[in-house]
């Protein structure tokens, strides 16, 4: 087994035909066929089946695709890390982030890091927690930054919480709550409450908190986008509970009002995650140090 065989397999597995695969690998079509045949012989299983002159992965091929992806990504990462030993101010960092962290926190951290290490290439994947964890497991991403409400096995992953993110009640300046500045949950339980759809991390976090405190919302309206929720609140569609990180600009501009809930609070940790057996590159070590320094300053200055 060699990397050229795995490269050919993955290209075919991802939907390229033999001609396209040969062009991308700068080899002949018969050479691609030989690579796949030798790989199947070594694994003693069929990876593809041909139906109507098209190649399709067998069930064994679908399983092996995950392993091949991990192997190729791991080899690429190891080469990248070796280069960074010579100069940690160069290289590439690929990481993933949940939506609210990736949009409202990390751009500032990335900008600060780029000022310190302008030659390091940064690549951030903003996606759902399920997709991010999958990409971490196949070595496509080096680490993740996400809420600690999402369960990850501490025996398998390194988990480091570096920031506490309060979620706060918000309303429009014209809402009756804006004059009160604080309230109890019973005051808002019948209000139209804008929330992300079921199975989103924030949705699950809020409902778990309500359940823990024996509280229930009567009138929920689901909006998939956090920006959509904020705009809905601004225009009087309802109220919501969102990360304070995500409404800094709107609060300063007077577009939203933050209301204190006297009988319940919503705080979640933000953490970075990587596999325990994962070697963290020099550039990534520097990036995580910048992240911790930035968020410590943010906490001291804003009281997050």
Describe it.
This protein is α/β, with parallel strands linked by helices and 304 residues long. It has three domains: 72 residues, Arc Repressor Mutant, subunit A, CATH 1.10.10.10; 111 residues, Periplasmic binding protein-like II (D-Maltodextrin-Binding Protein, domain 2, 3-Layer(aba) Sandwich); 104 residues, D-Maltodextrin-Binding Protein, domain 2 (3-Layer(aba) Sandwich). 47% of the residues lie in helices and 23% in strands. The strands form three sheets. Strands 3, 4, 5, 6, 7, 10, 11 and 12 form an eight-stranded mixed beta sheet that branches. A two-stranded antiparallel ribbon has the order 1-2.
Key phrases:
3 domains; two-stranded antiparallel sheet; D-Maltodextrin-Binding Protein, domain 2; Arc Repressor Mutant, subunit A; DNA-binding transcription factor activity; 304 residues; alpha/beta
């Amino acid at each position: 087994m060699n990397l050229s065989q795995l490269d050919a397999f993955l290209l075919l597995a991802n939907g390229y035909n033999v001609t396209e695969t040969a062009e991308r690998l700068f080899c002949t079509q018969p050479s691609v066929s030989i690579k796949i045949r030798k790989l199947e012989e070594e694994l003693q299983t069929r990876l593809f089946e041909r139906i109507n002159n098209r190649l399709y992965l067998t069930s064994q091929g679908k399983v092996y695709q995950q392993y091949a992806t991990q192997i190729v990504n791991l080899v690429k990462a190891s080469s990248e890390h070796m280069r960074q030993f010579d100069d940690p101010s160069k290289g590439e960092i690929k990481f993933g982030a949940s939506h609210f962290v990736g949009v409202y926190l990390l751009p500032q951290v990335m900008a600060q890091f780029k000022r310190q290490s302008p030659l390091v290439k940064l690549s951030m994947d903003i996606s759902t927690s399920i997709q991010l964890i999958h990409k971490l497991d196949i070595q496509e991403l080096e680490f993740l930054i996400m809420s600690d409400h999402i369960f990850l096995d501490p025996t398998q992953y390194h988990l480091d919480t570096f920031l506490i993110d309060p979620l706060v009640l918000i309303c429009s300046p014209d809402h009756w709550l804006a004059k009160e500045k604080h309230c109890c949950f019973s005051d808002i339980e019948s209000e139209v409450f804008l929330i992300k759809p079921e199975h989103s991390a924030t949705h699950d976090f809020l409902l778990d908190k309500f359940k823990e405190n024996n509280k229930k919302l009567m009138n929920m309206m689901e909006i998939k986008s956090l920006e959509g929720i904020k705009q809905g609140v601004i225009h009087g569609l309802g109220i919501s509970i969102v990360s304070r990180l995500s409404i800094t600009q709107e609060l300063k501009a007077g577009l939203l009002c933050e209301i204190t809930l006297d009988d319940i609070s919503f705080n979640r940790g933000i953490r970075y995650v990587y596999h325990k057996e994962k070697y963290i590159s020099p550039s990534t070590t520097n990036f995580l140090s910048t992240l911790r320094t930035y968020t410590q300053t943010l906490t001291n200055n804003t009281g997050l």
